[in-house]
Write a structure and sequence with these properties.
Blueprint: E1 5-16, E2 23-34, E3 37-43, E4 46-53, H1 58-68, E5 78-83, E6 98-103, H2 121-131, H3 151-154, E7 163-168, E8 174-180, H4 183-196, E9 206-209, H5 215-223, E10 228-230, H6 237-246, E11 249-252, E12 260-263
Parallel strand pairs: 3-6, 9-10, 10-11
Antiparallel strand pairs: 1-2, 3-4, 5-6, 7-8, 7-9, 11-12
Helix pairs in contact: 1-4, 2-6, 4-5, 5-6
Organism: Corynebacterium sanguinis
GO molecular function: sulfurtransferase activity
Protein name: Formate dehydrogenase accessory sulfurtransferase FdhD
Length: 268
């Protein structure tokens, strides 16, 4: 199931100021907007997550989110994951916006961000590192290869509304790619695919993004055993601190001839 775009009548206004009296012209045509739909995740009648996402790869998204939140250890902890048959629109059609999961393992989330009132920066970082399944295995990437990773995400249409998460080899070859309006959910979908394929921890892999690396993104990578993150955008201070504390490599502002290494690679 995937509803990537929705159609609307779109009116374009254009200004012609070449003549003495400026004129505004209008033109109405069929246009599209990136689909954004709500998604509710329930287990045993309890709502675990309410969010919005780009429809598609929802089972991966659910598995990835459950895994990075510490609610499951692997795919076998999810007995079933299915859309609720009773979630229908006014026309009686399934909305595909409510998913029920049957989780075999106890619901014991490990994320320290769920209730972080008064939590210090150091405590937050420490709790995230200790909640990870295990230490990451450093990725052996040749120095000249770091300049190639950005090409995996920057060649796409700059106007595309969705964010991209790519799992790459140490040689900068793409292995897996997922997109979503929310970069965190793009990563969830990618991690979910790994969980379903019993491929976590993802040792020897690099996470490449086309947007900012935040603490939330760095934590998801750490939970999946991904030891390196590369982005042509920036990284937040907490993402840098987590990467350094967890022994990860974090490369930002990456291009074909320049990268900024914030963690790993013998950074001070």
């Amino acid at each position: 199931m995937g509803r990537i775009n929705r159609s609307f009548a779109v009116t374009t206004l254009s200004l012609d100021d070449a003549s003495a009296a400026a004129q505004v012209f209008s033109d109405t045509r069929a246009g599209t907007a990136a689909a954004e739909e709500p998604l509710q995740l329930r287990s045993r009648g309890v709502t675990l997550l309410t969010t919005t996402r780009t429809p598609g790869n929802d089972v991966e998204l659910v598995h990835g989110w459950l895994f990075t939140e510490g609610l499951i250890r692997d795919a076998s902890d999810v007995a079933t994951a299915r859309y609720c048959a009773g979630a229908v629109d006014t026309g009686g059609r399934n909305t595909y916006n409510l998913m029920d999961v049957d989780i075999a393992a106890p619901l014991t989330p490990v994320s320290p961000l769920a209730d972080s009132c008064g939590v210090s920066r150091e405590q937050t970082i420490s709790e995230i590192v200790h909640s990870a399944p295990g230490p990451v295995t450093p990725v052996d990437v040749a120095a000249e290869t770091w300049f190639r990773f950005a090409d995996l995400v920057v060649e796409r249409n700059a106007k595309a509304p969705t964010r991209v998460a790519v799992l790459a080899t140490a040689e900068a070859d793409s292995v897996l790619r997922r997109e979503d309006l929310n970069v965190a959910h793009a990563v969830d979908k990618l991690v979910g695919a790994l969980v379903l394929d019993s491929a976590v921890p993802a040792a020897g892999r690099v996470l490449v993004l086309d947007s900012h690396v935040t603490l939330q993104i760095a934590r998801k990578a750490l939970m999946a055993g991904i030891a390196a993150i590369v982005t042509p955008a920036d990284a937040t201070s907490l993402a840098v601190e987590l990467a350094r504390h967890a022994g990860m490599t974090l490369v930002a502002r990456a291009s074909a001839n320049r990268v900024s290494v914030y963690a790993g690679l013998q950074t001070p």
